[in-house]
Design goal:
By secondary structure, the protein is an alpha/beta fold. It has two domains: 294 residues, FAD/NAD(P)-binding domain (3-Layer(bba) Sandwich); 99 residues, D-Amino Acid Oxidase, Chain A, domain 2 (2-Layer Sandwich). The strands form three sheets. Strands 1, 2, 7, 8, 9, 10, 16 and 17 form an eight-stranded mixed beta sheet that branches. A seven-stranded mixed beta sheet has the order 5-4-12-13-14-11-15.
Length: 406
């Protein structure tokens, strides 16, 4: 069986769905291929910073979430060793009508998916390999699916995660292990948790944990820690993850944190190695060839220390939609040669932004978790929290722009 599509997006995560929504808003239909049987909500929740809300407003879906999740006004970082507490105010960071908010990942995915025609999403569709064929002065992608189907696409966008088939075909350097892993989950208190709507983080040598309320009954929690292995024995074993966090990784954390872990919905618990792509691979590598490119984690996997993984994926979608939209509106159709120029412009606009996020995330994790010597303490408390913090504010105030009128 052979099919022809204007645009094919591989992966129905945040980047894939958001890109499909962006293209729909400028008049381009995309087919989204997802290898899973349904929407994947791995990670349970995420924090959307102001730059993400700007993107969501551009996509026309922000209103679906702002009524459900209240913005976080402040946070606290506690040094587990000495009890010192650093307050972080989020006042004045609002952009796009909303400040930083923690939301259910599933709610975000559903809000994006509901904007798309029902025939846009095709589940249980695994991509085996890609070819390129010349057409109209450029190249088109030929996708060979596991079920034997062949799909030809004028534009191919890989949003297929850290271990992206599309990124590998483009020749991007493989992501590397950061030396840290993370556990995440949702804690549920049927009678209410009674905690303030604030972010709480706890930092110790080699580890960082925290929690943030989603609503009056649910909290999202996480912990990252240094590890010599990727913890394959923990993946897919929520009871073991919970036990390891309580008895080992977070044993010195405050009792309130441990109580939250005990209230976890085990079905939401995950363990994963923290991977990232070297920033110079993003800057100098091939993030596009002709009308084939990548977005989200397929382009720029990063550690979670700035909370920008999902946020930057939403930015990608708007920027990609803007560049392709300008080409589509100019010709009233997708012209492969011009679409290739649009995609090249998208990569040029994004590569320095996301390379900076990868670098900033890695440094942030290193500073907050590594070393207990006086020089590291000085660097962390004097330089990082007081000077580099303002740089983080610039990161989350970023405006990715709007989509062109169709």
């Amino acid at each position: 069986m052979e099919a022809v599509e204007e645009v094919v997006i591989v992966g129905a995560g945040i980047a894939g769905l958001a890109t499909a929504v962006a293209l729909k808003k400028i008049g381009v239909r995309a087919l989204v291929l997802e290898r899973s049987e349904g929407l994947r909500a791995t990670g349970a929740a995420l924090t959307l910073f102001p730059n993400a809300w700007v993107a969501l407003h551009a996509l026309g879906v922000a209103h679906r979430l702002t009524s459900l999740y209240a913005p976080l006004k402040r946070g606290y970082i506690t040094n587990v060793r000495n009890g010192a507490i650093q307050e972080v105010s989020m006042a004045g960071t609002d952009r796009g009508g909303a400040g930083p908010s923690s939301v259910h990942r599933k709610a975000l995915l559903e809000a994006l998916a509901e904007e798309l025609p029902i025939d846009t999403l095709r589940f249980s569709s695994k991509l085996n390999h890609i070819e390129a064929q010349k057409q109209e002065g450029s190249s088109i992608a030929v996708l060979h699916m596991e079920d034997g189907t062949i799909i030809k696409a004028k534009v191919l966008i890989g949003c297929d995660g850290v271990h992206s088939v599309v990124a590998s075909w483009l020749g991007l350097g493989a992501p590397v292990y950061s030396g840290r892993s993370a556990a995440r989950g949702l804690a549920v208190f049927p009678e209410g948790h009674g905690l303030k709507h604030e972010i709480q983080q706890f930092v110790d040598v080699g580890k960082k944990g925290g929690f943030m309320p989603l609503n009056d009954k649910e909290l999202y929690w996480f912990i990252t820690c240094k590890s010599t292995s990727k913890g394959e024995d923990l993946a897919g074993n929520p009871e073991l993850i919970q036990r390891k966090v309580i008895d080992n990784f977070a044993k010195d954390f405050p009792p309130i944190y441990l109580d939250i872990i005990r209230h976890s919905d085990l079905s939401t618990l995950t363990w994963a190695p923290l991977m990232f792509r070297f920033p110079w691979d993003v800057i100098l590598g091939n993030s596009c060839k002709g009308t084939i490119t990548v977005a989200g984690d397929a382009m720029h996997p990063m550690t979670p220390d700035l909370g920008q993984g999902g946020c930057s994926s939403l930015e990608d979608a708007v920027v990609l939609g803007r560049h392709i939209g300008e080409s589509f509106i100019r010709y009233r159709r997708l012209v492969p040669r011009d679409a290739a120029k649009a995609i090249k412009s998208y990569v040029k606009e994004r590569r320095w932004r996301v390379a900076g996020l990868i670098t900033g995330s890695y440094i942030s994790g290193w500073v907050q978790q590594d070393g207990s010597g006086w020089w590291m303490k000085f660097f962390r408390d004097v330089i990082f929290y007081w000077l580099l913090y303002h740089r983080k504010m610039d990161v989350i105030r970023y405006d990715c722009g709007k989509l062109p009128d169709y």
